[in-house]
Design brief:
The protein is α/β, with parallel strands linked by helices and 319 residues long. It has a single domain, classed as TIM Barrel (Alpha-Beta Barrel). The protein contains ten helices and ten strands. The chain is globular and about 55 Å long.
Length: 319
């Protein structure tokens, strides 16, 4: 739907939530369907939904501005910037609390609400005002924090999908992320992955290079892509601050093959033996399912629940 009505959005969100609830997911997400932009399908609303309503962002781009952006390293997955920052930035007409309230009203289980983090958003914009990407990220963080303070969901998670490919930027990325995380009134979390554009990774790197960043965060838990990563990489999290919980990705969203419950349970057991069972607080897919057909996504959700139950010794939802 290019221009769905409010009722259509509510109906679609209700289906997404109910699918998870029926499968037995403990902490559900709203699916972010209302963020999708048909003009920028490659980012599935992760960028434009947040920056276009912000004051200080111009979206009518000149050819030179587009060419300048294309020449920047590390942004090959985008052909043009999400906008030009040519004045002081603030939240403008962005209204995250309204979206969160809609999902909360429709969900019958605890809800996790997600938003793109300041590092990712700053990297997709061209700055003509702040003079540096770190300064721009901080301005974005302050605008997001103002909204986050009004969100009412069990978990508030910021998503940073560009930093894993640029670990050298971790210090200013952590400073900006902490502005947003500190505004969370409930449970703050962060998700990192190596990209999920066109169903493929767009960055290379290792989790070991991000440990300093993770340890600097004011966060309850981290939500990490692991099913698509080398098994040995889980060892990197042994150096994580002990009070930070781990959300372990056990479903690969970049493959159409549906994992077995046994495979998922064994993945969790291996991680528990290495890190300690108490460290694994959440079990989840590597990233969002938006690139997969619904039948595959639904099957992977069911497998996730069955693998979780096998690992934890729970009775399945149908029993």
């Amino acid at each position: 739907m290019a221009a769905p009505s409010e009722q259509a959005l509510a109906d679609a969100t209700r289906v997404v939530l109910h699918t998870q609830e029926l499968a037995g997911i403990d902490l559900v997400c709203d699916g972010e369907l209302y963020r999708f932009d048909v003009n920028h399908p490659e980012t599935n609303g992760m960028i434009e939904y947040f920056v276009r309503p912000m004051a200080g962002v111009r979206t009518d781009l000149t050819f030179k501005e587009i060419q300048d952006f294309r020449a920047r390293p590390g942004m090959g997955f985008r052909a043009r910037p999400a906008g030009i920052v040519d004045g002081p930035l603030n939240g403008g007409s962005l209204d995250l609390p309204a979206a969160c309230a809609r999902a909360t009203a429709l969900a019958t289980r605890p809800l996790k609400f997600t938003l793109t983090g300041p590092h990712m958003l700053a990297k997709t914009l061209s700055d003509r005002h702040y003079g540096s990407t770190p300064a721009l990220a901080m301005a974005i963080a302050e605008a997001l924090a103002e909204q986050v303070a009004h969100l009412d969901a069990e978990v508030i998670q910021i998503d940073e999908a560009n930093l894993p490919g640029h670990p050298e930027e971790w210090e200013w990325a952590a400073e900006a992320a902490n502005v947003v995380l500190s505004a969370v009134e409930t449970t703050p979390a962060i998700h990192l992955c190596f990209g999920n554009y066109g169903g493929q990774s767009v960055q290379s790197g290792t989790w070991a290079k991000l440990i300093n960043f993770l340890n600097a965060l004011k966060v309850d838990h981290i939500v990490m892509e692991m099913a698509h990563r080398p098994v040995a990489e889980v060892a990197a999290f042994k150096d994580l601050r002990p009070e930070i919980g781990i959300g372990l990705g056990v479903v690969d969203v970049k493959r159409t093959e549906v994992e077995s419950a046994d495979w998922i349970a064994k993945s969790l057991q291996r991680a528990a033996e290495l890190l300690g069972r108490e460290r694994i607080r959440y079990i989840h897919p590597d990233c969002g399912f938006w690139m997969l057909k619904r039948s595959i996504a639904d099957a992977k959700i069911r497998a996730l629940v069955e693998g979780r139950d096998l690992y934890e010794g729970r009775a399945s939802p149908s029993e």
